[in-house]
Amino acid sequence: MQDTPHSAAVIPLHSGYSTHTAIPTQAPLEPPAWLSPLARRHWAEIAASLNKHNIINELDQDLLAVYCSTFARFIELDERLEQTGMVQVTSTGYEAETGTFTAWNKLLKPIMAYAKQLGLTPPARVALRLTDPEQTDLFL
């Protein structure tokens, strides 16, 4: 097979869904213009590694963009939490979560879901493990 920017090799994988997956060989993905500067920095870090290990292709670009955007918002909220704290005292004297903490906390679940889909968690990387006995890199 000739390597072109959009060629793919079929490599057997251990998976509950399929015994073969197309692993793309391609040029690095570019972030969409609408990403914030912080999300773009995260994209650069993540996309380089995912590309290096042939885990993503252009079909995953939107998912990666949403992950990076959500992660950037999480970081911005985390920085704001340093100033506002997680708890506030209400007008009636009770302690309650701050709005910033509530928003921060709500982003954890989608971030983890996106991370799993992109192979960014240890279990997700193990699920991508190649069946080739010569393959020793579990983190593709």
Automatic annotation (TrEMBL):
It comes from the Bacteria. It holds the Pfam family Terminase_4. This is Phage terminase small subunit P27 family. It comes from Candidatus Thiocaldithrix dubininis.
